Amino acid sequence: MEMQEEEKREEQYEGVRLCDVISIEEIVSVHYFQYKSNFAFPGESHDFWELICVDYGEIRVVAGEREIPLRQGEMYFHRPGEFHNVLTDGRISPSLVVIGFFCRSSPMERFSGKLLSVDEREKELLGRIVREASSVFSGRMDDPYQKKLRFSRRAPFGGAQLIRQYLSELLISLYRRSFSRVPAERGRGERGERGESYRRIVRYMESHIREKLTISRICRDNLIGSSQLQKIFRKNAGIGAIELFSRMKIEEAKRMIREGGCNMTEISDRLGYSSVHYFSRQFKKLAAMSPTAYESSIRSLSEKQG
Question: pLDDT value at position 300?
Answer without folding.
Answer: 41
